[in-house]
Design a protein that fits this description.
Layout (H helix, E strand, L loop, with lengths): L1 H16 L3 H7 L20 H4 L20 H19 L4 H22 L4 H19 L8 H21 L6 H17 L1 H24 L12 H19 L1
Helix pairs in contact: 1-4, 1-5, 2-5, 4-5, 4-10, 5-6, 6-7, 6-8, 7-8, 8-9, 8-10, 9-10
Length: 248
C-alpha cells in the first residue's frame, strides 16, 4: 500500500503543480497593483473559478504565443517531490489529505514571495481557516496521529510569536509572514509542541543563514527586503516530516 500511496501522491502533486503558473502570474504584482486579469497581450483570462484555475495558456493568442508566466515543469516537479515525501512519512493517515491539499498552495506562495516579496491575503487567510477546519475533520477519523485542539493553539502561538517579531522589526518581517505563521502553526501543532518548535526554528535559521550569506557576498544590505515565506514553509515541511515519522 505504501509504494502505491507514494506514487498516487506524487501524481497528484505533479498535476496540481501544473496549475500553479496561472495564479502565480495573476498574483505576482506589487501591493498597490490589482491582480492581473489579462494575458501579456491583453486578452482577458477566463476559465474555471473566474479564470484562476487552468494552465497558463491564452486561447485568444496566436500559436506560439499562447503560454505566459513561468513554465509549469518546475512547480510540478517540486510539488510532486514534496507530496511523495509527505506520503512516505505520514502513510495512510487522515491528515495526509490535508498536507497534500496545502502543498500546491505552499509552492504558489513560495513563488509569489520570491517574485514580489509578498504573501497575498487571498491565499494566507483561507489557508489558515481551511487547515484548521480540515484537521478538525481528520481528528474525527480513525488512525489520525495528532491533536486538533493543540493544532489550533499552535496556530495562535506561532502567529503570536511572528506578530511580536513584526512589531519589534517591521522592516525585517512582513505582516504576510505573520498570517502565514497561522497556517504553519496549525500544521506543526497537530503533531506536538516539539514539532512546532523544530519547524519554526528551522525556518528562522534557514532565513537568517541565507540573509547572512547574501550580506557577506554583497548581494544584499542590512535593510534589503528578503522573501522570508519560502524559508518558513521549508522549515515547516521539515517539521511535518519529522513529526509524522515520530508519530508512526
Amino acid at each position: 500500500m505504501q509504494p502505491l500511496l507514494i506514487v498516487l501522491a506524487a501524481a497528484y502533486g505533479a498535476a496540481a503543480g501544473l496549475l500553479v503558473p496561472r495564479p502565480l502570474y495573476r498574483l505576482a504584482v506589487e501591493p498597490e497593483e490589482p491582480w492581473r486579469g489579462a494575458c501579456p497581450r491583453g486578452h482577458a483570462l477566463t476559465g474555471p473559478a473566474h479564470g484562476w484555475l487552468g494552465p497558463a495558456r491564452c486561447a485568444g493568442c496566436q500559436d506560439g504565443e499562447r503560454d505566459y508566466g513561468t513554465g509549469p515543469l518546475l512547480a510540478a516537479a517540486l510539488s510532486a517531490l514534496v507530496c511523495a515525501g509527505l506520503a512516505a512519512a505520514v502513510g495512510a493517515r487522515p491528515e495526509l489529505a490535508v498536507w497534500l491539499l496545502l502543498v500546491p498552495l505552499g509552492v504558489l506562495l513560495t513563488a509569489v514571495d520570491l517574485a514580489v516579496n509578498r504573501l497575498p491575503d487571498v491565499l494566507t487567510l483561507p489557508m489558515a481557516g481551511g487547515a484548521a477546519a480540515l484537521l478538525g475533520a481528520a481528528a474525527l477519523l480513525p488512525h489520525s496521529a495528532g491533536s486538533w485542539p493543540r493544532a489550533l493553539l499552535g496556530g495562535a502561538v506561532l502567529g503570536g510569536a511572528y506578530l511580536v517579531l513584526f512589531l519589534i522589526s517591521p522592516s525585517g518581517m512582513g505582516f504576510g509572514d505573520v498570517k502565514l505563521a497561522l497556517t504553519l502553526g496549525v500544521a506543526l501543532g497537530w503533531y506536538g509542541w516539539d514539532v512546532l518548535f523544530v519547524g519554526a526554528l528551522a525556518g528562522l535559521l534557514l532565513g537568517s543563514c541565507c540573509a547572512v550569506v547574501l550580506v557577506l557576498a554583497r548581494r544584499a544590505g542590512r535593510r534589503t527586503a528578503m522573501a522570508f515565506g519560502p524559508f518558513m514553509i521549508l522549515g515547516a515541511g521539515a517539521g511535518l516530516v519529522l513529526g509524522a515519522l515520530g508519530a508512526g
